[in-house]
Specification:
This is Golgi associated kinase 1A. This protein has helices at residues 14-17, 48-57, 75-88, 108-111, 168-176, 179-187, 191-196, 199-224, and strands at residues 4-5, 22-23, 130-132, 135-140, 166-167, 228-229. By secondary structure, the protein is mainly alpha-helical. The strands form 3 sheets. A two-stranded antiparallel ribbon has the order 1-2. Strands 3-4 form a two-stranded antiparallel ribbon. Helix 3 crosses helix 8 and helix 6 crosses helix 8.
């Protein structure tokens, strides 16, 4: 499996070839992008208000995937995304305006005055909501800009708002205590990623941070008695 690769082709813009390895999924030709050049980081245009309506509609369960307000994505996909983004503290997808935590003054969402929009939910948009053309009911996770240094007292719980269930298999891994060994084994499969990220020593520190957040997520699920579903 290929996670990261360095690119040297002369046909690529300089920003893709001047730095370190890039996620290969960025160039997957099956990823569906909007034709709008100002909004090509999405497969579908989606506001936060519509996102909230979709969660309540339980698309593919109570409401047809292509009936309003649904956009063809299964309800269970949003819980997978929220779980992933919470563990890595990825905000630039469900909360690009940094409404759910205290960003640093140097953060992009502060410098670009995104946070000023948090008072009006109607102005909030989702980004990096992408699917494959061959399977538009499932989300593809790219641009996963996590926050490994985010302190535990400033975690973004807004990412979990409206999520009413979680995938049983992923939660069982968090409960098992085996996350570190499983992740190390998985990440080792791509030698370039492994070397660029500093190998086991550097990755263990990140994984322990993820494990701590996982325990907080488990407590969140217990406190709210949220059900688990079988993720096929």
């Amino acid at each position: 499996p290929a996670v990261l690769r360095s690119f040297h082709s002369e046909i690529l813009p300089y920003r893709y070839t001047r730095g370190g390895p890039r996620p290969v999924v960025w160039w997957d030709p099956d990823i569906q992008h909007l034709e709008d050049s100002n909004n090509d980081q999405n497969s579908v245009p989606l506001s936060y208000v519509q996102y909230e309506k979709m969660l309540k509609a339980r698309c593919g369960i109570k409401t047809g995937l292509n009936e309003e307000p649904c956009v063809g994505v299964r309800h269970s996909e949003w819980s997978r995304l929220a779980l992933f983004d919470f563990l890595l503290q990825v905000n630039d997808r469900l909360d690009r305006y940094c409404c759910g935590f205290r960003p640093d003054p140097s953060d992009v969402c502060v410098e670009n005055l995104f946070q000023a929009k948090c008072g009006n939910t109607k102005d909030l948009l989702l980004v990096h909501i992408l699917v494959r053309k061959a399977d538009p009911s499932r989300l593809v996770f790219i641009d996963n800009a996590g926050r490994p240094l985010q302190p535990l007292d400033n975690l973004n719980f807004r990412l979990l708002q409206g999520i009413d269930q979680f995938p049983e298999r992923a939660i069982s891994v968090l409960q098992s205590g085996c996350l570190e060994s499983l992740l190390l084994r998985s990440l080792y499969a791509d030698g370039e990623f492994w070397d660029v990220r500093g190998g086991a020593g550097a990755l263990r520190a990140l994984i322990r941070t993820v494990e701590q957040r996982g325990q907080i997520l488990l407590q969140h699920i217990r406190d709210r008695q949220l059900p688990l579903y079988t993720d096929l």
